[in-house]
Design a protein that fits this description.
Thrombin, subunit H; 619 residues; elongated; 18% helix; six-stranded antiparallel β-barrel; Ubiquitin-like (UB roll)
């Protein structure tokens, strides 16, 4: 015991030492050993005083950079962790009418020709245009030299919380996805009286309104607002200018569907480009296409005015995203993108429609973008019929692994949302799990839409004979009620194995969803992967929803040691093993499971009891 304690303490000491070393490297990378600020070019926050005046630069129309005036009202020390903020009143360029505009994030501010920082914060409902300016020295501290690796085929450290039934499949949910601490609170209603980062417009094209609404729910916690915009405009010669005050676009999805965040360039130093003055997502390491942009129109509103725009030419890639701004590298290096293909057939759609897009590769974000493209493509032609059934296939190809393929059915009222959730679950588990972050090579979805719901409820059941010999057959009548149709009875013959011992046994006839719940109760070990291989094997399993599941409880009970199941053990042996000091010993009960193809997607189930008796009368 003493040796074990010493080992644990030593491990903790080594871990703390590693973290301290990593923190030291991070501090050095973020300015600890950085050269002093060029005081001819920049004004440090320590020199900024209330009453000083200057100018800001931004783009409100096309690619024309305009100036606006600023007056320093205050300098807030320790506004954030070891961060200050400059509070300025803005005027000119129409800001008295519009206020601070969403899309201005990153607009550089100068005093006496020296850059003091970037417009980054504002107040909601402010009667005058007051902006929070991110000091430039805090922005220049943004670096891509940080030793973390947030994406790529690296070992993930987040625990897997639980398995939950999502769609037709039990899928792991990363604990990080459930933690409220991962969602910024600055954009909630609780931040109404706080200075907060300016909302980031997300220019979207090719999405339906329903998909836009669902996308907005996911982006809102990050301070992003999706709005209808145009596709990339590649024929604008002035849009290639890389100078402070010019529009800056970061592409997340492009192709038949486009999603691009819009902000403003703050500073360009060599091949480094700084912008926004606040986080985009704030996940640290990034790898997104970086583009110039064009402003279309400023829309003044009482709550928060915004600038509509469009991306233009690709100029490099975003490499880092943190609280004080974003950092991009200018050049010919391009961010890798994941192809997403959706093929749709259905009533009124004529020939098969194919939608193609490319999305950024990120362990947290790719699942959201893939799901949004899939869900929107299903309703691109028109909304699904009020009563509908969608036969779909999802194919997700992890890098260096066999593809994960799901064939199943979704029924009204929200077949598109159901498929969207399934895509999100599969992609999310491949990329964000407790074992290994696998890269995704491609995502493919095929969907065949038909009018009419194939949903049917299992209402009643009755045994035509409840006693049977080993090897015999028990006939069961099942009453099902198809959607908006008269109920009907079907007969199911359940065969008992020849070697089944005498006794009473539970017989469950149910839907795929109910069968999944039963299996999770009987053998939870099957839903608790302990490595990447078992996780992928789990994701490859499927429960067809157009099947009747027939579950006959097996005699005896067993255990699982790790993932190895030992069914039907003698009671004494099971008791000894369950009470031993072995780790990962769990109890399991078994069922003989068969399925019967159905023309319906079933819901519900019925539980019966049969008796196996060698003296049972012959049928």
């Amino acid at each position: 015991m003493r040796t074990r304690t010493i080992s644990i303490v030593l491990g903790l000491v080594l871990a703390m030492a590693a973290l301290h070393g990593r923190a030291a490297v991070a501090t050095a990378a973020r300015g600890g050993d950085a050269p002093p600020l060029d005081l001819k070019r920049y004004m440090p926050v320590a020199q900024v005083k209330p009453g000083m005046t200057g100018v800001g630069r931004t783009t409100l129309q096309a690619t024309t950079i305009v100036e606006f005036k600023i007056e320093v009202l205050a300098v807030l020390k320790k506004f954030g962790p070891k961060r200050d903020l400059i509070i300025c009143r803005c005027s000119g360029a129409g800001l008295e009418q519009s206020g601070v505009v969403a899309g201005m994030s990153g607009s550089p501010v100068y005093i006496d020709g020296r850059l003091i920082g970037a417009v980054a914060y504002t107040f909601r409902w402010s009667k005058v245009p007051i902006a929070g300016v991110q000091p430039i020295e805090q922005m220049l501290g943004v670096t891509d030299a940080f030793p973390w690796q947030a994406t790529g085929p690296a070992q993930a450290t987040g625990p897997v919380a639980t398995f939950a039934a999502v769609g037709d499949e039990a899928l792991t949910v990363p604990a990080s996805a459930l933690a409220s601490a991962d969602v910024p609170e600055a954009f909630s209603d609780r931040g109404a009286y706080q200075m907060r980062p300016i909302h980031t417009p997300v220019m979207v094209s090719g999405l339906t309104q329903r998909a836009m609404a669902r996308l907005g729910e996911h982006l809102e916690p990050f301070g992003m607002v999706p709005m209808q915009g145009g596709a990339a405009e590649l024929d604008l010669p002035d849009a290639a200018r890389l100078e402070p005050g010019a529009p800056l676009a970061i592409a997340m999805v492009r192709g038949d569907v486009e999603m691009t965040t819009m902000g403003t360039i703050t500073e360009v130093v060599g091949d480094r480009l700084y912008g926004f003055g606040h986080a985009m997502f704030g996940f640290g390491e990034a790898n997104y296409p970086m583009m110039t942009g064009v402003a279309k129109v400023v829309v003044p509103t009482l709550m928060s005015s915004f600038r509509m725009g469009a991306p233009s030419k690709e100029i490099g890639r975003l490499v880092w995203d943190e609280q004080t701004g974003i950092l991009g590298r200018i050049g010919n290096d391009r961010a890798p993108l994941v192809p997403v293909t959706v093929k749709v057939t259905g009533p009124g759609r004529g020939a098969e429609q194919t939608f193609r897009a490319e999305m950024v590769h990120h362990q947290r974000l790719s699942q959201m973008f893939a799901a949004t493209v899939a869900g929107s493509s299903l309703t691109a032609h028109s909304d699904l019929p009020p009563d509908h059934t969608v036969a779909y296939r999802i194919r997700v190809k992890p890098e260096g692994r066999d593809p994960i393929v799901h064939d199943n059915l979704a029924v009204s009222p929200n077949g598109d949302a159901y498929i969207e959730m399934a895509v999100r679950s599969i992609v999310g588990q491949v990329m964000e799990n407790a074992f290994q972050c696998l890269a995704i090579e491609s995502v493919e979805v095929e969907a065949a839409i038909e009018a009419g719901s194939r949903l049917a409820e299992i209402e009643k059941s009755r045994l035509l004979r409840n006693t049977v010999r080993p090897g015999g057959t028990v006939p069961v009548e099942l009453k099902i009620r198809p959607w908006r149709e008269e109920p009907r009875w079907i007969t199911v013959d359940v065969k008992v194995p020849d070697d089944w011992p005498e006794g009473k046994y539970a017989l469950v006839l149910c839907s795929a969803d109910e069968a999944l719940k039963q299996e999770m109760l009987e053998a939870p070990v099957r839903f608790a992967p302990d490595d990447i291989e078992s996780l992928l094997a789990h994701l490859a399993r499927g429960h067809r929803r157009d099947r009747l599941f027939i579950r006959l409880s097996a005699p005896g009970q067993g255990i699982a040691i790790g993932r190895d199941e030992l069914p039907n053990l003698p009671a004494t042996m099971r008791s000894v093993l369950m009470g031993s000091a072995r780790r990962k010993v769990t109890g399991v009960t078994g069922s003989l499971v068969t399925t019967r193809p159905m023309e319906y997607v079933l819901r519900g189930g019925r539980r019966l009891e049969i008796t196996v008796d060698r003296q049972a009368p012959e049928p």
